[in-house]
Model the fold of this input.
Amino acid sequence: MYQLNLPTYDLRLRRTGNRDMIFDVLRRKYVALTPEEWVRQHFVHFLIEHKGYPTALLANEIELRIGGKHLRADTLLYNKELRPHMLIEYKSPTIALTQKVFDQISAYNLLLHADYLIVSNGMQHICCHMDYEQNTYHFLEEIPDYSEL
Done:
């Protein structure tokens, strides 16, 4: 797989038939190892092990419904009242973080109203804080520690 701009961790990999699988600590099961999943697992471990995010408030692959469409948010951090606090969208390391990626996460956030949005392709990580009172957002220099949220 790809060398990412994220800390390494003790991977749990296995092969099932002809498919490589990686253990998802949040879903507590092995999932297909794709480039996007590689990024997700590294990023989630980064949040937990280096930024102090509680595993109990994180969830992967959350189903959303927009009209008749069924979509999936890659990762959500909930606040202590179990409302969406941070929405994270992952892309493969070969996918540039373009306006189209921001349009996608923004559409998801119309339903969720999360306070923070993050997009990452494992090489570049972009985080912004939403200000719903002023109808604006501002980009942060780095991913905040959980204690700073």
About this structure: The chain has a mean pLDDT of 95. The chain is about 20% helix and 40% strand.
